[in-house]
Every structure is written in C-alpha cells, then in structure tokens.
Amino acid sequence: MANTLPEFEIYAIRYATRDAQRRDHFVGGDPHDGPMPMDYFIWVAIGPSGAYVLDTGFTAEMAKERKRTHLRCPIDSLKLVGVNAGDVRDVILSHMHYDHVGNFHKFANARFHLQADEMSYATGKYMRYPKLGHSYHVEDVVGMVRLNFKGRVEMHEGSVEVSPGITLHPAPGHAHGLQVARVHTRRGWVVLASDATHYYENMATNRPYSTAFHIGQMLDAYRILEKLAPSPRHIIPGHDPHVMKEYQAPKPELEGIVIRLDVAPVGPAPTFPQIGR
After folding, report:
1. Is residue 200 included in any domain, yes or no?
2. pLDDT score of 2
3. Does 235 fall in a domain?
4. pLDDT tens-digit readout, 231-271
5. In Å, what is the CA distance from 140 to each residue of 100, 146, 181?
6. How far is CA 135 from CA 98, 140, 176, in A?
7. What dihedral do alpha carbons 241, 246, 252, 254 form, nearest 10°?
8. Could you give the number of structural domains in the chain?
9. Residue 120: Cβ-neighbour burial (10 angstroms; 0-12, 13-18, 19+)
C-alpha cells in the first residue's frame, strides 16, 4: 500500500505594507505607471509533524529605518493561528533579505533551513556593492552565522524534503540562494514562492522584479514554479496584495490579517495591463 502524504494547513500572515508605484516592481520600469502597493507576509504550515514557519519578516525598528508601514509583529501574530514561536522547531528561510530573516531571534528552539548558496552569497564578495548589499541587514546575516556556529542552521545544497509533505527547491535569481517551499495540502501541492515571484504579474508576463542578482535565473525560476505547482493558482507570490482578495480569513475577526491557502481561492484570478511590444 502506498504511503499517503500528510495534508498541511497553510496560513499567510500580513504584517506590513508600503506604498509603491508600478515602475518600482519591474526591470526597466513600466509604461503603465501608477500605484502598486506591496504587502509583506510570513507563512506557516501546520500538520501532524508540527508547525513550519517560512520566513520571519522584519521588526518595527527596521520598518522605521526602511520607511515601511509595520502593522503587527509577525512572530507574535503566529498565536492567531494557534502557534507559539517557542514551540516551533523548524523555520525555513527563503533567503536572507532584511524582510525575510528579521525576528529570527524570537525562535529560541528552532533550527533554520537555508540554502548553502545563500549563506555564501550573503557573506561573500558581492555584498560590497550597495545595489546588492542594500537588501541585506548585516546584523541579521551575522546573527545567522552565529547560529550556524551553534549548530542551529541546516544548509541545504539543492532540493530537499524537510518533512513528509514539505519540500524545498532552489529558485535563484532574485538572490543567489533563494529557495521556495512546496507544501502538500487538501487541494494538492501549494508552492510558497516567496520572492521567486513578488507579484503574480512578474511571473505571468515574464517581467522580472527590479531587485535581481541574475535576471536570467529569475526568469528560469518562474519555470521552476510552474513545474512544481499543479496550476498557476497553486503558486503564492511573496508580496502581492491580491492574495488577500483571493483567499478567505480563517475567521471573520482575522479579515485583512490572516488568510488560509490550503483551501481553494474564492476570489477572482488577477488581471494585468496589456504591455505593447
């Protein structure tokens, strides 16, 4: 008899936002410039083997420094879905940009899953260049180095299963060592893309996000997402406010704060402006 994979519940917690323009989100700008706000999320998958957190957001202090609107502490907000940070044993870091690895210190008992390429990149020669180093906060990077010395960082080299029903896959481009998480749910495999595609539109129109280490790899990462997911609506972008319109809150009082991703979307699929050739 074949083994049956566990089915995880997946929640996205919206913890910050910022005003932005379309030109901010595409290499080369955008001919249809206008408002295009950005949301910030962390994600948590809950199943028989426990809770697995993907990314850890940024602090209120970092929000002030970077001029973001901080709505709530993402780690404290895990309690909204019944998870205490102290009980979490596994945290997956898609990459180490400031908005994905801040607050790591709030997980006192977790080990951190990271691609080895990302640690090499974040501590390597390219960080001398402001265009690339600006996306990292040096104290976060140093903090992860210290945790590695304590044996609390699992550095993977390629795709890996961290638990039955959760697999990690390299999808570089935005950052050299970026990885995505694929989670088995009641509606099949859901791919948490994080910054492999910031918005639905980046991937759907093959127009990469403006912060990139390697544009060609970022385009290839879109193809990786397509192969991992049963359909485009099983791919969850990292910063798109539209996901809050597609998916329902687990209960009314969490409207606008938490959505559940292991159930089918109820809102409309996104649409995009037509870009002339």
Report:
1. yes
2. 52
3. yes
4. 999 999 999 999 999 999 999 999 999 999 999 999 999 98
5. 10, 10, 21
6. 6, 11, 12
7. -30
8. 1
9. middle
